[in-house]
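Usage example:
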Amino acid sequence: MKPLLKVENLSIRLPKGADREFAITNVNYELMPGEILCVVGESGSGKSMTANAIMGLLPKAIQVETGAITFDGYNLASLEEHRARKIRGNRISMIFQEPMTALNPLMRVADQIGEVFLIHTELSKKQRHERTLSLLKDVGLPDPEKMMSAYPHQLSGGQRQRVMIAMALALEPSILIADEPTTALDVTTQAQILKLIKELQEKHNTAVMFITHDFGVVAEIADRVVVMEKGQMVELGEREAVLNNPQHSYTKKLISAVPPLVAPERPLLAESAPVLTVNQLCKTYSTGGGWFSKPRIVKAADDVSFELHRGETLGLVGESGSGKSTVSRCVVRLLESDSGEILLGDDPIQALDAKALAPFRKRIQMVFQDPFASLNPRKTIGQIIADGPIAQGMPVAQAMQKAAELLALVELPATALDRYPHEFSGGQRQRVGIARALAHDPEILVADEAISALDVSVQAQILDLIEQLKQRLNLAVLFVVHDLRVAAQVCDRVIVMQKGRIVEAGVTKQVFEQPRHDYTKSLIASIPGADWRSGKTTGHAKTLEKAYA
Amino acid sequence: MSIQTLMYIGGRLIKGAIVLLVIAVFNFFLIRAAPGDPAKVMAGEAGATDELFLQQLREQFGLDQPLYYQLWVYISNLVQFDMGITYRQQMPVFDLIMDRMPATLLLTGAAFLMSLLIGVLAGVVAAQKHKQWADSFITVAALIFYATPLFWLAMMAALFFSVYLNWLPSFGMETVGANLTGFDRFVDIMTHLILPATTLGLFFTAVYARMTRTSMIETTRMDFVKTAIAKGMTPNRVTYRHVLRNALLPVVTLAGLQAGQLIGGAVLTETVFAWPGIGRLMFEALFQRDYNLLLGVFFISSAMVVLFNLITDVIYCVVDPRIELSK
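Running the assembly step on the lines above writes:
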């Protein structure tokens, strides 16, 4: 079979001042008709760069240095713009990561899809309308007639991505490039979108180049896999071969960092008095509303109750909008709950004013999701860590001394003390975030999606660190997490939330192996690549198990 | 328009009326707080300084009453849409303002349209030629017009185009004593309009140009623009169908701000160019301490601001489907 698209010796130069000279170096691969080729790599690996070069979407400052991209007798790397436009959106089309922002907010869905016909075909207005309608039906959107005149903001993330897919497949292209199309979606929506792409790909025999960082997704849909590291192509092979018998050390490292979907057996914790008790917590958000209109009310936490014990990791899992972050923020009193009880040990803290709360604050500390936004860029790492204890009355010299000790604890060099956050990577910053939380010697650590902004290999390191610290300092950890693979590995117990309510709670192994609630079942069934690595224990899990032993 | 939208607009009108009433009370005290006495000004002009005559004048205008009573009279007349009689011309304030309204609206309206058109166009060109000489030229020109005081610009323009080049008339709205009619009169007014409208509009032209440029450049980086390019569109089509519409949203807000000044915002220009509009009327009323007239102009100006705020919001809801008026 002749390849549809050939990437040969492709090198793309980055502008001066970038962290490396080339975005990608000597990349070679072929895309066969009707196959799904997954391009996998961590952030900064250059995995999207080739796709952008194929589409002619490279920023002006970035140029193809050498090599060729051959498609249908053309070299896309050096094709004149007016010819490239005829191919773009017509023979090769693309969908993007962020469905929320990828559609023009001011144009109706039908107009945005219809535009593709308008540009590339001679279809009449009526024909365009009919074709658009049938596309909306094909991608499984409910009530396609009504969808036609909807604006993007009236659609959910998953629906918007379906519109994007409809738009991309409008002219039945030979190649569909999908750049992390499910990364921004919830796990159940992701499963639906992956299924849709696969179905449409089989129906039209489209070749798909699927860019992702998630090996679960690879296991779910790939035929062949390309692994990228720092602009180099390190491995290329059939899915089974790459996933189960990786050759390159980087691939091995990446795959072993993916938490397996089996919850390990955990020792039961000794009965102890809870360090945190939450009783019937309720929190509602109301938006809008004024003199003449009623506000819209969303129940973010609805009758939520749980207990947290020393030495325990409790997972709060659920999709976006389930209220898991709201609960964690109410517990540390960053948000005020409407009703319910929050007890630290035996002390109720939900009604204390700021002054009375101050001494309790240090007992419960938080690690935030975004390591880039959660550290003050104008302060040194030392100041960031020492700030809390100083505010609690510790002398400055002693606080700085403590900050130095904490840096050692989170495995950062002591020289970091006088440096600023921008000098550190995401993983390192998250270590600083943890050190900052630990500066108060808390009993409870609340980690709100503390690893979801990190690459998978870094995730594993941070998880290990939190686990070790928990053991060493006998912490209780409330872990807010949307990634069920992570939850399965690190949590002793999990609470599953949906629309502000707890639908299921129990020992992790039990919840994963015998889920009782339908929602939990659908969540677990939606995890991409659920069948892959469902039995094996990996290096990562072993370290975690060791830590638990 | 849906019931909800009408309800919303109705609600906003009621709110607006309350706001206007508060403004009217505030204006009342503001004017009384300024030094000066209308009776003295008028008596002075009549050449009389007789204390009895002053007393008569004060009685005639109700200025001898206690302040709270004067306020009560003013507000209770106002809610019946009666703004009183001017001290000087002895005409109803409302009639006098309406008399001057067309001239002002012609001037400010022309300035408004001009600044919107030229400003947005300049902004689009600058954004498209980002970091080229056309961009630098427009940016620098916009900065200069943005920073230059209006009255100085007006005087310089009059000096250069009227006195030095003798191209355009430097004052008034029509040639005095020419008694032109029909098309000739139209041309006459237009030539008189050019200088004041341009100087008045320059500031906002600069603001629109800068705003449009920034907004265009920002919007160009949005994901949906990438989607549009990935569809295979020509750059021009991407710019006008996708970028421009989104980039104009913040410009609408500013245009609403400028539209609110359609009546009260031309005082300086009207004074420098002797334009017979409301601005000059207000300027004169200020010197004569003509309380009723001043309050009338203030009130009408505030009403315009409140009205155009509402209109801006309605327009916003039309151009941006994400915004719902009922919320």
